[in-house]
Amino acid sequence: MTNPASSIRTTGGSSLGLVLALLSAASFGTSGAFASSLIEDGWSPALVVLIRISLGALILAVPSILSLRGQWSRLWSGRRSVVLYAVLAVGGAQVFYFHAVQRLSVGVALMIEYLGVVLVVLWMWLRHGRRPQRLTVLGSLLAVAGLALVLDLFGGIRIDPIGVLWGLGAAVGLAAYFLISAKVDDALPPVAMAGTGMAIGAVMLAVFGGIGVLPLRAGAVTVHLHGGAVAWWIPMLGLAVIAAAFAYAVGVMAARALGATMASFVGLTEVLFAVLFAWLLVDQLPTVIQLLGGLLIVGGVAVIRVDELRRSESFPQLTDEPSPLGPSLPERV
């Protein structure tokens, strides 16, 4: 029986996948502005993440149950992917990143985290023999150069070895997010994957917080957002609904439609959206250099997309990217 997720890649659904990937990136891009308003007013990063994914899991609880249609065995058979998704992609990536930001400038922390995109390419090459072609390498270089400009790495850089380690942990989590999300072999429905992943991630963080490994500290009841003072639950609700429930569910759909490699590079546009929302919500205007960097990122993604289309035309029968966590599928070379 053909998995519907895999057939998406052979029926023109990749265009829909691009739209979904951009929607997911835009949604994740709001997290920086929402979270910073809380963290700057005394909320600990771990507590912000815990409440974010707990509420996100509650929002997706009913849709997750309905999507399974009573087939609970699918949840058990996919337990390995779900647990890894929860630990690495949901809980780990966020906690590592927010701790990195406490020791590094935001630009450097994001740059290190987005090395996860490179890790995806390396994983597909070393684990599955999918060697990157010249256009993919060129697109990668353009996208990374653009990322450096958008993040303004040439101004106000702070380097801290511990912060770098936190950032590398976030990079592993980011790579795991795209690789696990792209898994289509006997995969859970995207909503169920996102919902159960956030639920397990929330339990994990609550346990670590309960034993004192992660500080769970609430801050001010009134925080600063969009140039004014708002109740703490407003940015928290934005984190839960937009940057968690919607972003994770749509992100899984996008990764299954595009494959891990392409989805990860489209995910770089999250940085562009983050700059845009920082402008709209916390009055941080983008510079000309950042706009130029944005054009380079878009250009890099476009080049990689051309390479993906060329390979699909050359090998139309090979449509599925191999699963990083399960039996190998026919490889999209």
UniProtKB/TrEMBL annotation:
<feature type="transmembrane region" description="Helical">
    <location>
        <begin position="288"/>
        <end position="306"/>
    </location>
</feature>
<feature type="transmembrane region" description="Helical">
    <location>
        <begin position="45"/>
        <end position="70"/>
    </location>
</feature>
<dbReference type="Pfam" id="PF00892">
    <property type="entry name" value="EamA"/>
</dbReference>
<keyword id="KW-0812">Transmembrane</keyword>
<feature type="transmembrane region" description="Helical">
    <location>
        <begin position="106"/>
        <end position="126"/>
    </location>
</feature>
<feature type="domain" description="EamA">
    <location>
        <begin position="162"/>
        <end position="304"/>
    </location>
</feature>
<feature type="transmembrane region" description="Helical">
    <location>
        <begin position="192"/>
        <end position="218"/>
    </location>
</feature>
<feature type="domain" description="EamA">
    <location>
        <begin position="16"/>
        <end position="151"/>
    </location>
</feature>
<keyword id="KW-0472">Membrane</keyword>
<dbReference type="GO" id="GO:0016020">
    <property type="term" value="C:membrane"/>
</dbReference>
<dbReference type="InterPro" id="IPR000620">
    <property type="entry name" value="EamA_dom"/>
</dbReference>
<feature type="transmembrane region" description="Helical">
    <location>
        <begin position="138"/>
        <end position="157"/>
    </location>
</feature>
<feature type="transmembrane region" description="Helical">
    <location>
        <begin position="163"/>
        <end position="180"/>
    </location>
</feature>
<feature type="transmembrane region" description="Helical">
    <location>
        <begin position="82"/>
        <end position="100"/>
    </location>
</feature>
<dbReference type="InterPro" id="IPR050638">
    <property type="entry name" value="AA-Vitamin_Transporters"/>
</dbReference>
<keyword id="KW-1133">Transmembrane helix</keyword>
<dbReference type="InterPro" id="IPR037185">
    <property type="entry name" value="EmrE-like"/>
</dbReference>
<comment type="similarity">
    <text>Belongs to the EamA transporter family.</text>
</comment>
<feature type="transmembrane region" description="Helical">
    <location>
        <begin position="262"/>
        <end position="282"/>
    </location>
</feature>
<feature type="transmembrane region" description="Helical">
    <location>
        <begin position="230"/>
        <end position="250"/>
    </location>
</feature>
<protein>
    <submittedName>
        <fullName>Threonine/homoserine efflux transporter RhtA</fullName>
    </submittedName>
</protein>
